[in-house]
Write a structure and sequence with these properties.
The complex is a heterodimer of chains A (about 110) and B (about 110). Chain A has about 110 residues and is an all-beta fold. Helix content of chain A is about 0%, strand content about 55%. Chain A has no helices and eleven strands. In chain B, the strands form two sheets. In chain B, strands 2, 4, 5, 6, 9, 10 and 11 form a seven-stranded mixed sheet that branches. In chain B, strands 1-3-8-7 form a four-stranded antiparallel sheet, with no helix packed on it. Classes of the chains: A mainly beta (about 110), B mainly beta (about 110). At the A-B interface, strand 5 and strand 10 of A face strand 5 and strand 10 of B.
Chain lengths: ~110, ~110
């Protein structure tokens, strides 16, 4: 089955700097790649997603890139703010199969 | 838009007692439904998923079970809780294209 590896497990950045989180997947049939943000004690919330027919998608300060050949995708957060501090999860799926999640990255934005 | 309701929000149960967590979906029909568990500071573990009434797929062997008595209702149960069942339980649902949304979650502490 699908396996998703996520790096790094923790990341600290200064406010205003950029943050990058990377994920790799194993199933070449995977075609859907969402990112979720989970604040402490709350549910994960979808922040951005990408499908295999595009290489990059951007929403304000957040962008996701996908490299299908290398089977990896990344989340980019620019001009980080303290409220960006949270745990971020990547995931992948193909067809109607359940999402397989990475183990998460704890992002800390230091003011 | 789709809304996931989940209850109870928190519960403390003694070892060996039964469990019932309920999840309902509003705003859509025939959703795919999921139960995830998250141990403290850990990732999202898929427990069960369902693509329709009475159809349950189990991802992890354990003393938990799931049922889907109605199209938009998903129940997680146990006859006898173990200490290791403690965690944050999340119901999620989605209708197409793999995108899923999470309920508010249920904090279970087994004592």
């Amino acid at each position: 089955g699908e396996n998703v590896e996520q790096h790094p497990s923790t990341l600290s950045v200064q406010e205003g700097d950029s943050a990058v989180i990377k994920c790799t997947y194993s199933d070449s049939a995977s075609n859907y790649f969402p990112w979720y943000k989970q604040e402490l004690g709350k549910r994960p919330q979808l922040i951005i997603d990408i499908r295999s027919n595009v290489g990059e998608k951007k929403d304000q300060r957040i962008a996701v890139t996908l490299n299908k050949t290398a089977k990896h995708f990344s989340l980019h957060i620019t001009e980080t703010q303290p409220e960006d501090s949270a745990v971020y999860f990547c995931a992948s799926a193909s067809g109607n199969t359940p999402l397989v999640f990475g183990k998460g990255t704890r992002l800390s934005v230091i003011a | 838009s789709q809304t996931i309701h989940q209850w109870p929000a928190t519960l403390v149960q003694p070892v060996g007692s039964p469990l019932s967590l309920e999840c309902t979906v509003e705003g859509t029909s025939n959703p795919n439904l999921y139960w995830y568990r998250q141990a403290a500071g850990r990732g999202l573990q898929l427990l069960f998923y369902s693509v329709g009434i009475g159809q349950i797929s189990s991802e992890v062997p354990q003393n938990l079970s799931a049922s889907r008595p109605q199209d938009r209702q998903f129940i997680l149960s146990s006859k006898k809780l173990l200490l290791s069942d403690s965690g944050f339980y999340l119901c999620a649902g989605g209708v197409s294209g793999n995108t899923i949304y999470f309920g508010e979650g249920s904090w279970l502490t087994v004592v």
